[in-house]
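**User:**
Make up any protein.

**Assistant:**
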Amino acid sequence: AELKDITAELADAGCRVSLFIDPSVAAVEAAARIGAPVVELHTGTYCEADGETRETELARIIEAARACGETGIECHAGHGLDYATVKPIAAIAEIMELNIGHFLIGEAIFRGFSGAVGEMRRLMDEARAGA
C-alpha cells in the first residue's frame, strides 16, 4: 500500500511515474495494482546472456510487454542495450520507448553523437519495420 500511495501522491503533484521492473507478468500485474502508468522492463539479463538463455530472456520480455498492453500500462525497456541486442527488443510492438544511455555515450567517443545515435536509430527502425 505504501508504494501505491506514493505513486498516487506523485501523480497528483503532476509527476509522471514510471517503475523499473523485472520483465515478468507478475511484476507488471503488481505495477498495475499500484497504479503505475508506465514501466521500464529491465533488459540487462537479456543483454548479458547468450544462446538459449538469451532467447529465454527475450521471451520473458515479450510476455511482460504483452501484459503491459493488456493492463493499459505504457511499456518502456532498457539497460545494457547496444547495437547487437537492440533489434529484437525494438521489434516488440508494445514497447513504446527504449532507454539506451551508457552505450551511446561510449560509442559517441568513436563515432560522434550523430553517428552513434544515427546507427542506433537505423537498427531500431529496421526492427520496427518488421514488427
